[in-house]
Amino acid sequence: MGAALITGASAGLGAEFARQLAAKGLNLVLVARRIEKLSEVKRRIESEHPSVGITLISADLSDPSAPETIATQVAEAGIQLHYLVNNAGASGPRLLQDSDWQAHQAYLTLMMTSITELCHRLMPAMIAAGHGRVINVASVAGRIASGGDSHYGPSKAYVIALSEALALTVKGQGVNVSALCPGFTHTDFHATAGMDDVKQTTPSWLWYGAEEVVREGIDGVELGKAIVVSGRLYRWLDPLMQSVWTRWMFKGQGIPESSQD
Ligand SMILES: NC(=O)c1ccc[n+]([C@@H]2O[C@H](COP(=O)([O-])OP(=O)(O)OC[C@H]3O[C@@H](n4cnc5c(N)ncnc54)[C@H](OP(=O)(O)O)[C@@H]3O)[C@@H](O)[C@H]2O)c1
């Protein structure tokens, strides 16, 4: 069995991907900035699955050199990847209000360039092996344009488009690529962004657990689905969000930036 490389594995969906893929017998390469949090995830998984080999890589994916460094470490350790989960992400600066362009550039590097480069560097070995799975974690926010959301939704829309194009490109070669699109999910995401109020101001039935979102993501990529919208409610809403009428309504109203998910 090969290994799964998971970015943003120190918390939330990434830590849950690590847990579920370890349970399938995959070795793990866990990537994030906070090495102490990664070590906690490693200890927890080792206590449940002692035979799983776990490598930790501390990297900041908003640094343009990070994907090359990660790919080099994987190659030098002789690790054969079966799964790539591009999951790291965060809420970002406001495009028109926050004046530090470097912060915007770093954000776009994290949300789009790092994912693209990790696919570029790591997928050819999967294609050569005739087997691989790639999950790029996007969002339902990437499925519809909304006023006030100039970075997050558009970057997720790119991840969805990239995943669909890659899925078509590698079709029939044993490699499946999916964009996983969750809606509101219980993780550290909103607290990290200082948006704790979103949980109080949105109905509880809009929220899903990380276990379900990740399970549906893994099932979806195994089935070869290019876009996996997780959660029954969001699967029901998704076709509506693609309709011209809904888009017209959203254009009129906009969604406040603070409700990004
Ligand atoms: N929660 C939701 O409602 C929701 C909904 C739709 C989509 N998503 C997407 O799901 C993905 C995972 O988010 P989550 O909800 O699990 O949030 P989370 O609990 O805050 O976890 C985010 C992860 O990303 C990592 N990360 C953030 N910035 C990074 C950087 N510059 N370099 C490397 N790693 C970085 C964090 O690790 P370190 O801080 O240790 O680096 C952490 O492990 C994101 O792409 C998010 O956009 C979330």
What report would you give on this structure?
This protein is α/β, with parallel strands linked by helices and about 260 residues long. The protein has a single domain (about 5-260), classed as NAD(P)-binding Rossmann-like Domain (Rossmann fold, 3-Layer(aba) Sandwich). The protein contains 10 helices and 9 strands. The protein has helices at about 10-25, 35-50, 65-75, 100-130, 150-170, 190, 195-200, 210-220, 230-240, 245-255; strands at about 5, 25-30, 55-60, 80-85, 130-135, 175-180, 185, 210, 225-230. The strands form 2 sheets. The chain has a 7-stranded parallel sheet with strand order 3-2-1-4-5-6-9, sandwiched between helices. The chain has a two-stranded parallel ribbon with strand order 7-8. Helix 4 links the parallel strand 4 (about 80-85) and strand 5 (about 130-135). Helix 1 (about 10-25) packs parallel to helix 2, helix 3 packs parallel to helix 4 (about 100-130) and helix 4 (about 100-130) runs parallel beside helix 5 (about 150-170). The longest helix has 29 residues, at about 100-130. It is globular and about 55 Å long. The two termini are about 35 Å apart. The model is unreliable at about 255-260 (pLDDT under 50). Bound molecules: NADP nicotinamide-adenine-dinucleotide phosphate. NADP nicotinamide-adenine-dinucleotide phosphate (NAP) binds near residues 11, 12 and 110.
